[in-house]
Specification:
Shape: elongated
Oligomer: single chain
Strand order of the largest sheet: 5-4-3-6-7-9-8
Helix content: 25-40%
Distance between the termini: 66 Å
CATH architecture of the largest domain: 3-Layer(aba) Sandwich
CATH class of the largest domain: Alpha Beta
Number of domains: 2
Radius of gyration: 22 Å
Number of helices: 12
CATH topology of the largest domain: Rossmann fold
Strand content: 15-25%
CATH superfamily of the largest domain: Vaccinia Virus protein VP39
Amino acid sequence: MGAPSAPWTILALLRWTTEYFCANCVSEPRASAEVLLAHTLGLSRLDLYLRYDQPLAPDELARFKALIIRRRAGEPVAYLTGHREFWSLDFRVSPAVLIPRPETETLVAAALEAAKDFRGADQGPKAPSPPSRSSSFWGLEVGVGSGAVVIALAKELPWMTWVGLDLSGPALAVAQDNARRHEVAGRIRFLQADLLSAVKPRAALALLAANLPYVPRAEWERLPRDIQAFEPQAALLGGEDGLDLLRPFVRQAHAYVRPGGWVLLEVGDRQAQPVAALFSATRAYDPVETIPDFHGVLRVVRARRRHGTP
């Protein structure tokens, strides 16, 4: 970063950094520059434009330059700042967890719509082992990562109690921290588990959601460096066709959900119909629905547990 003829102001830095990121093929160059500079200065992105002529101190410039170098190398902005917004909530993230994506908000919205079936309903069966809480309405998420989905649902559905499962211990530590920050830790029990192995198969859950690795290997090999080199592969790669974990999850899920309860699963592009067929093949659900995200991609498969034995 060469020395300017005048002090580096916020606006001058934003312009220079955006051009620098463009020249180095950094994705979202303007947004990256704004978020990193706001983080360096402890300001909001709006504040940057309200204080556009404010000069930076030498120590601020040094910290910002260090972030620029790391971003040029491909490190995601969310890991550089340690934060990511999801469902209008601020989540702490680290390289131990997948960065929450906007399209995953489709999973939250679909679960909230399904939860309307239970609001004000009579008391239901007891919660599945091992947690013991007073709530009659239980939800569970498999593959919690940062905790974004289960925490957003716990905030929106305060009358429900939750279990969050993940195979990664470091990811669960991040999720637990986020639950404490959002004051829902008392209604979420986090457990380390492979899929549903930590919970006894009792038909007790009102909602069962999962955001499992579903990226096919061929697609994984084409992903940008920002993702391949920095985000946890185990949270993304789902085998040759992306369905290595989705298949066993669908086979098991109905044993955990009460009659009338819902199972929701996030899927990748062109996976919704094959996954919906897997749900239908169990003969445990009616209806089985596919729900698009804001790009029009069928992002969520939602299935309601039918009454009686399939």
